[in-house]
Amino acid sequence: MVSDLVLSGLWGFLGGFALLIGAVFGYYFKIPPRIVAGVMAFGSGVLLSAVSFELLDEAYSLGGLEHLAAGFLIGALIFTLTNLYLARRGAKHRKRSQRPEEFEGNGAAIAAGSVIDGIPESIAIGLTMIGGTGVSTATMVAVFLSNIPEGLSSSAGMKKDGWKPSRVFILWFVIAVVTSLSSIIGFTVFQYLPPQVTAVALAIAAGGILAMLVDTMIPEAFSETHNLAGMLTVIGFAISFILSKLY
Description:
The protein is mainly alpha-helical and 247 residues long. It is built from 7 helices and no strands.
């Protein structure tokens, strides 16, 4: 139990740590927007597969169609309303693949938006560990890949706004800790609740992630990769599907 608790925290931290990795590259290197968008397209495919074959499939097994549908819509609604509020505060373009000189945003709002994006993903990581089967490889890879472009593009913009590197990296490290705690909550709290509650939680996470993909990552991926976006998304989806069946 204790080892699984620690592992859930470590897996959640690893998913959030991708933000810090992206931040280092975004702050010190000029990564072509096309490459960032390509990673977004690939990561979108991975996340779409994880939502479909990991989160929703498990939610349906635990709680049936009614709990899945309720949680799915609630998750999308929560993300949409929160995203609208944060967009007005300056976090609209937190997952942009744009060049730093085109950055428009507010650092604090972007950080808050990253937390909102990361919490359902991290809770989902913890939820996949319930039952002693270990973390879902597909979900873990999906979360990790989706976080790298966010840390990269946002940190490049923060640098343009005059943020010192210590401030930027401490910010992303704190967010990684938050994602770790979210994963622990997903693992510890829900395993003692009725399976229907876990089903709703999985569906909420899936709804929030899917809404985030359509609102942020997929449009940005297409904006730079254009006709390649579909192929990269399909490749990511296929690899994630294979991982979900192998592990």
